Amino acid sequence: METNFIQWFFDFIMSYEPKVIIACASVIGAGFAMITGIGPGIGQGYAAGKGAEAVGNSPKDSKSIISTMLLGAAIAETSGILALVVALILLFGNPLIGASGSMVVIASSAIGAGIAVIAGMGPAIGQGYAAGKATEAVGINPRSSKGVTLVMLVGQAVAQTTGILALVISLILLYGNPFASMEGAFIILGASALGAGIAMVGGIGPGIGQGYAAGKAAEATGKRPDQQSNITKIMFLGQAVAQTTGIYALIVSLILMYSNPFL
Amino acid sequence: MITGIELIKACSAIGAGLAMIAGIGPGIGQGYAAGKGAEAVGRQPEAQGDVTRTMLLGAAVAETTGIYGLIVAMILLFANPFI
């Protein structure tokens, strides 16, 4: 019987030492992880643009404008740093090298871990927008700086949720891999690890959306500081709704990892 | 030897993961609605009830494609027509 491509491919993969294949998968995973860097770049660029605009409009308030901008931009950096951490783990402190279990499963987990943190792109974009809007608001109404900054920070914290969830899945695949000890066909286990990582990419959306909500709330607070509590309430309600698809992604990811129907 | 059924299951696992990428859209859209809701309440506090209702109604509609994605993922996992 002639060997089909799928069988040939896996025979080819398994003709190498496990360490080699896992290393190959890890460098691919590290590369995927850094795609997240798109997010902070966009978000922080927006914040910088708004900062420059605000300083141009109100030079005498440049100190508080710049401090709001830098504070917001620092938070937007979070996802980029987390992705960098995952990439560096895969390269220098890789817990999967030497892990027990099928090499295909371990290799797929490394790639899945890298793909999962791409979700962090969303929170970073959203948080950058929030930073920009807060900066603008402080420029327009310097006296509202305290309230605006608070709303911005709280909103940004919520927007980070899907980035954190993605990081958790990534770290589970790296350090507490449930597939390594499972019984079942290696191709199903490996694909499930990949699927679990890919599912988390959906978290880009809630991050962007929630960050936008945070930005608008900060802007509104700048205009009407007396309405801060009402504004914040609506922001939270809307952000909770925006979170739902991030939760769906997490559910599918967890099903694939812990309650897999294919095994 | 990789059997056909095993390959189908493997591809279904990846398909279920890919389906969840749909969550990008509702997240962005509903977040936009939340932002505009916050803006509206800031501007017209006494209309808060109406603003909230309208925001949630619109967000519910925006949710539909996210749910579609979830449904397809669940079908692939638990009611797979090819297995």
From TrEMBL, chain B:
Compartmental location: Cell membrane; Membrane
InterPro entries per UniProt: ATP_synth_csu_bac/chlpt, ATP_synth_F0_csu, ATP_synth_F0_csu_DDCD_BS, ATPase_proteolipid_c-like_dom, F/V-ATP_Csub_sf
Keywords: ATP synthesis, Cell membrane, CF(0), Hydrogen ion transport, Ion transport, Lipid-binding, Membrane, Transmembrane, Transmembrane helix, Transport
Reversibly protonated during proton transport, annotated site positions: 63
Domain V-ATPase proteolipid subunit C-like: 14-76
Primary location class: membrane
Transmembrane segments annotated in the record for this chain: 57-79
Topology relative to the membrane: Multi-pass membrane protein
GO molecular function: lipid binding; proton-transporting ATP synthase activity, rotational mechanism
SUPFAM superfamilies for this protein: F1F0 ATP synthase subunit C
Keyword Transport: yes
GO CC aspect terms: plasma membrane; proton-transporting ATP synthase complex; proton-transporting two-sector ATPase complex, proton-transporting domain
Function: Key component of the F(0) channel; it plays a direct role in translocation across the membrane. A homomeric c-ring of between 10-14 subunits forms the central stalk rotor element with the F(1) delta and epsilon subunits. F(1)F(0) ATP synthase produces ATP from ADP in the presence of a proton or sodium gradient. F-type ATPases consist of two structural domains, F(1) containing the extramembraneous catalytic core and F(0) containing the membrane proton channel, linked together by a central stalk and a peripheral stalk. During catalysis, ATP synthesis in the catalytic domain of F(1) is coupled via a rotary mechanism of the central stalk subunits to proton translocation.
Family to which the UniProt record says this protein belongs: Belongs to the ATPase C chain family.
The name this protein goes by in its record: ATP synthase subunit c
Provenance organism: Alkalibacter rhizosphaerae
